[in-house]
Amino acid sequence: MVDVGLALPQYDFSVPGETPLRWETLLGWAARAEALGFGSVWLSDHLFLDISRYGAPGGDHGCFNPLVALAAIARRTDTVRLGTLTICGPLRPATVLAKALATLDVVSGGRLTVGLGAGW
Prior knowledge:
The protein is α/β, with parallel strands linked by helices. The chain contains three helices and eight strands, in the order βαβββαββαββ. It holds the Pfam family Bac_luciferase.
């Protein structure tokens, strides 16, 4: 069986007409993904994202903290797995990150999948 995941919109520019992105919109997307049968939902880890490098207007745009957002999504959903599209290890002390991830795994009922890397 193929498991298909969905990278959720989490940046200020992700959803047309919603700048900045509203919290309820993100949670709604996660709940809808679960209802549609997606096996997982994913969030990336950036402090800011400069979309002008991709030819779009504007400068830095904010986004939700993926660990906080995934904790909220865990409470809004029941079965969908929760994933990080590469948590940037250098942004956080290792022990603090490990504790946060372990807590998130407990809060989600063991649904967390972690992608860990250097980031960009």
